[in-house]
Fold this sequence. Notes:
Blueprint lengths: L1 E4 L9 H5 L4 E3 L5 E3 L12 H7 L5 E4 L2
Antiparallel strand pairs: 1-4, 2-3
Amino acid sequence: MRITIDTDVCVGAGQCALTAPGVFTQDDDGFSELLPGREDGAGDPLLREAVRACPVQAITLADD
Length: 64
């Protein structure tokens, strides 16, 4: 699975980091980013919920 964050759309709400803190974090400006080594979601059971929680739909998932 490949996770993409559209940084032009992200508003820094942080819902992804709150929902799946094992996959997402926020950079110094508050925008979402993936944790190192978690680019594929690492099987996190909350990944899809974190994607749904994004208020601006800046995160997409694609099957490899």
